[in-house]
Structure formats: C-alpha cells, structure tokens
Amino acid sequence: MTGSSACRRFAFAFGPAFAVIYVIALARDLALFTVYPSLGIVLAGTHHARDTVSPSMGFLAPAMYWYGWTATAALGALVFGLAAAILPERWTRRLWSGWVWVVPLGAMMACVYLTLPWFRLYL
C-alpha cells in the first residue's frame, strides 16, 4: 500500500508541476535542446537563427523548440514528483485536494495566450 500511495503522490505532483514549468519554459524560451529536423541536427539549449546575411535561413532550416520545452518541463516536474513521493504522506495530504486540476487549466490558458502572436503574424 505504501508504493501505491507514493505513486499517487508522484502523479499528483508531476502533473501540475509539468504544466507550470512548461508555461515558464515557453515564456522564457528555455528549451533543453533545439531540433533542426530538415538538417537532422539536435543542439543543446535554445538556438535562434542569427544569419544577418540571409535571414531566410530561418525559413529554410526551421528550428523546433517544442521538444526542448517538453524535456525541460518533464525534467523539472520529475524533481517535484520524486520529492512528493519521498515525503511522508502526512506532509503532503493537504496538497492533493480538488484544486490540483485548476493548475493545468490555467497553464493551458497561459499557453494559448503565449502562442497568440504566432497566429497574428499570418492574419
């Protein structure tokens, strides 16, 4: 029964932590790595095209940051989840009430708000 309780605490800490850290990674552009799929290149950290001679290079070899943002959020949430699983249940009992689902909903709204400029570019 102890393992099941620890897994439950891990899951209920990992989910909201992932949502919050993902929003922070998206807002601050904190990608663990950047992927250039057309070139087959993966670089550590966030890399933006800085080609001043031909700015169209950003179009020819677009960078994908989503994988890096997801990895950043997963790594950060893993720390929170493991901490919650290790802590005694009596310390974490108050944290797992119904409000825990408000955090991911707020994070989804924040992600929509943060991505609105990308959609406004083409309207």
**Main sheet specs:** 2 strands, antiparallel
Global outline: elongated
Helix content: 55-70%
Overall structural domain count: 1
Please compute the radius of gyration using only Cα atoms. Answer: 18 Å
The main sheet orders its strands as 1-2
Strand content: 5-15%
pLDDT < 50 stretches? none
Q: How many strand segments?
A: 2
Task: Give the mean pLDDT.
Answer: 83
What's the end-to-end separation, in Å? Answer: 55 Å
Number of helices: 5
Tell me the series of helices and strands, N- to C-terminal.
HEEHHHH
Structural class: mainly alpha
Describe the structure.
The chain has 123 residues and is mainly alpha-helical. It has one domain. It is 61% helix and 7% strand. It is built from five helices and two strands; from the N terminus they run αββαααα. A two-stranded antiparallel sheet has the order 1-2. Helix 1 runs parallel beside helix 5. The radius of gyration is 18 Å and the shape is elongated. The chain starts with a helix and ends with a helix.
